[in-house]
Amino acid sequence: MSHNKKVNADKGVIIDNLLAKVNASPFLLVIDYTGVTVPEFTALRADLAAAGASCMVAKNTFMAKAIAQAGLPDISGHLVGQTAYVTGSSDVCAAAKVINTFAKKSKKAAYKVGILDGAELTPAKIQALGDLPSREVLLATLLGTINGAASALARVIQAYVDKENGGSEEAPAAE
Known about the structure:
Elements: H1 3-24, E1 27-32, H2 38-50, E2 53-57, H3 60-69, E3 83-88, H4 92-106, E4 110-116, E5 119-121, H5 123-131, H6 135-164
Antiparallel strand pairs: 1-3, 1-4, 2-3, 4-5
Helix pairs in contact: 1-3, 2-4, 4-5
């Protein structure tokens, strides 16, 4: 086997691995990591892993091919320079929150572009996703709203019952 065939086979394996990661993730965040030190990058990767995401560096041309094979939007114009790619199992907001925090602290790592559920995202949209409250906070807020509405409804019903009873001393039957 000649050297060129081996190199092309290696490229194919790398692109296939990138394609598998892109296909397994509902999102792809592309960041510029110019100036990020190795210890900073290691810490960023650890924080992303804790949020269910991973950060990888790949040759931009290889990633462009993987994205094209996945049938995702053509973002190849953004894949230049020092580029890192973030994928994850589910929560794009948690991953964006980690990157937002890292960028604020280090003044490094700017968003280039993103893809969420097959749609292209601008850096501002990715930033906004990271600024959203966590899923737990959103669920607690929703639950509080539902409970508040139920309590208000119960008070209205009780007031109606009290009014219909003519304000008598008799308490309504227990449920």
